From TrEMBL:
<dbReference type="InterPro" id="IPR046806">
    <property type="entry name" value="MrpA_C/MbhE"/>
</dbReference>
<keyword id="KW-0812">Transmembrane</keyword>
<comment type="similarity">
    <text>Belongs to the CPA3 antiporters (TC 2.A.63) subunit B family.</text>
</comment>
<feature type="domain" description="MrpA C-terminal/MbhE">
    <location>
        <begin position="37"/>
        <end position="94"/>
    </location>
</feature>
<feature type="transmembrane region" description="Helical">
    <location>
        <begin position="80"/>
        <end position="97"/>
    </location>
</feature>
<dbReference type="InterPro" id="IPR007182">
    <property type="entry name" value="MnhB"/>
</dbReference>
<dbReference type="Pfam" id="PF20501">
    <property type="entry name" value="MbhE"/>
</dbReference>
<feature type="transmembrane region" description="Helical">
    <location>
        <begin position="177"/>
        <end position="197"/>
    </location>
</feature>
<dbReference type="Pfam" id="PF04039">
    <property type="entry name" value="MnhB"/>
</dbReference>
<dbReference type="InterPro" id="IPR050622">
    <property type="entry name" value="CPA3_antiporter_subunitB"/>
</dbReference>
<feature type="transmembrane region" description="Helical">
    <location>
        <begin position="137"/>
        <end position="156"/>
    </location>
</feature>
<protein>
    <submittedName>
        <fullName>Cation:proton antiporter</fullName>
    </submittedName>
</protein>
<keyword id="KW-1133">Transmembrane helix</keyword>
<feature type="transmembrane region" description="Helical">
    <location>
        <begin position="203"/>
        <end position="221"/>
    </location>
</feature>
<dbReference type="GO" id="GO:0005886">
    <property type="term" value="C:plasma membrane"/>
</dbReference>
<feature type="domain" description="Na+/H+ antiporter MnhB subunit-related protein">
    <location>
        <begin position="110"/>
        <end position="227"/>
    </location>
</feature>
<keyword id="KW-1003">Cell membrane</keyword>
């Protein structure tokens, strides 16, 4: 019965979508007939990267970054809030003690040495990604995830390794508070949350795009520290230190 209902719903949704796409009165333009010069995305490009404008709105060479951090910055803050609540839920449910979980099979020297070399490379690339998020593809979320992946590698390669939970907690809280403060400055001074109130500089340079790279660095640190805390909580067990 469940399969029949699922198939019926799938057929209904598919029929609805195809009827919209192929209906002659549909508001969707036919493939290849859409004039992209008049789309909203084109207007965002013109506002942000057109060097003929005296003051581009963000000055970010990466238009995706402009949208994520500036135009939908409040939504990005919501995503960070969801991640924070998830980390807090994991901490409340699992972090009943501070003892590090041990492995039945002890990691050997080659594994430990190899992971330490790879971890350094991952950390550098992760930091590079969120520092250059306004110039190249990337940003705070992937950069932060790479930092957390290096912490995970250290955990699984060394049964004595235990991250400094307090340091990551302080880093996560500090970066989150700074994002809120910068957003409120824009809200109260310029009537727009996370308003880009710093000079945009010259497009394509490292020190450009005003507030955008600062926010991406803070987002990268917050995501990396939160994910690292989640990893640490998953690998602890009950008991006193």
């Amino acid at each position: 019965m469940k399969k029949f209902v699922a198939a019926l719903l799938t057929f209904t949704v598919a029929f609805f979508i195809f009827s919209l796409l192929y209906d002659s009165q549909s508001f969707f333009p036919k493939y290849g007939e859409k004039d992209l010069n008049n789309t909203i995305s084109q207007r965002y490009l013109e506002k942000n990267t057109d060097e003929t404008r005296p003051y581009p709105e963000t000055g970010s060479a990466n238009i995706v970054t402009s949208v994520v951090v500036n135009y939908r910055g409040f939504d990005t803050l919501g995503e960070l809030t969801v991640l924070f609540l998830s980390a807090m839920g994991v901490a409340l449910l699992l972090n009943v003690g501070k003892e590090r979980l041990g492995f039945r099979v002890k990691p050997n020297f080659i594994l430990k040495a190899g992971v330490r070399i790879i971890t350094g490379i991952i950390l550098i690339v992760g930091i590079y990604i969120f520092v250059h998020g306004h110039l190249t593809p990337g940003g705070g979320f992937p950069g932060g995830a790479m930092i957390a992946s290096s912490v995970l590698l250290m955990y699984i390669s060394d049964d004595k390794f235990k991250e400094k939970m307090n340091a990551f907690t302080v880093l996560e809280g500090t970066s989150g508070v700074l994002i809120i403060v910068l957003g409120l400055i824009g809200l109260f001074a310029f009537n727009s949350f996370l308003y880009n109130f710093l000079p945009s500089g010259e497009i394509g340079h490292l020190f450009s795009a005003g507030l955008t790279p600062i926010l991406y660095v803070l987002i990268g640190l917050k995501v990396g520290s939160e994910l690292s805390n989640i990893i640490g909580n998953f690998l602890t067990q009950g008991g006193e230190e």
